Amino acid sequence: MKILQEFRTFAVKGNALDLAVGVIIGGAFGKIVSSLVNDVIMPPIGVLIGGINFKDIKIVLKQTVVDGVGVVIVPEVTLGIGSFFQSVFDFAIIAFVIFMLIRFVNKMKKDEEPVAPPAPAEPTNEEKLLIEIRDLLKK
């Protein structure tokens, strides 16, 4: 029972909720960037390098084994190098966008007007008396 209470205390703290929201938004942002890379950026790059679809780039380690009728007995074994490059490209774009976002937020914080320190309060009678004593001792 104590563990449940500790977990409930942890789960309703602001940090845990902020983390949950960040993970959900991050997942959605990742999908947007993946779509940007797959559907907008990579097709023109593929055209520029000869019509290659990066997802189709692979290294075949073992060929498909087919029987006489055309039924696949053993599927081919491949290394999906193109998918890996696409994921690296996704990561680079996400990292750059996050960098720019953090840079923007830090710049906004820097541009905010600094808050002036509060004016010193009027000294109390006791403080005034201590100041007079200090001044007399200096003489």
What can you tell me about this protein's structure?
By secondary structure, the protein is mainly alpha-helical. It has one domain: Orthogonal Bundle (Non-ribosomal Peptide Synthetase Peptidyl Carrier Protein, Chain A), CATH 1.10.1200.120. It is built from 4 helices and 4 strands. Strands 1-4 form a two-stranded antiparallel sheet. It has a two-stranded antiparallel ribbon with strand order 2-3. Helix 2 crosses helix 3. The longest helix has 35 residues, at 14-48. The protein is elongated and about 115 Å long.
Overview features:
single chain; 139 residues; Non-ribosomal Peptide Synthetase Peptidyl Carrier Protein, Chain A; two-stranded antiparallel sheet; 4 helices; 4 strands; 65% helix
Q: What would you give as the CATH superfamily?
A: Large-conductance mechanosensitive channel, MscL, domain 1
* Secondary-structure content class: mainly alpha
- Strand segment count: 4
Q: Given the C-alpha coordinates, what overall shape results?
A: elongated
Number of domains: 1
CATH topology: Non-ribosomal Peptide Synthetase Peptidyl Carrier Protein, Chain A
What's a quick, concise take on this entry?
The chain has helices at residues 2-11, 14-48, 81-111, 125-138; strands at 59-62, 65-66, 72-74, 77-79. It is mainly alpha-helical and 139 residues long.
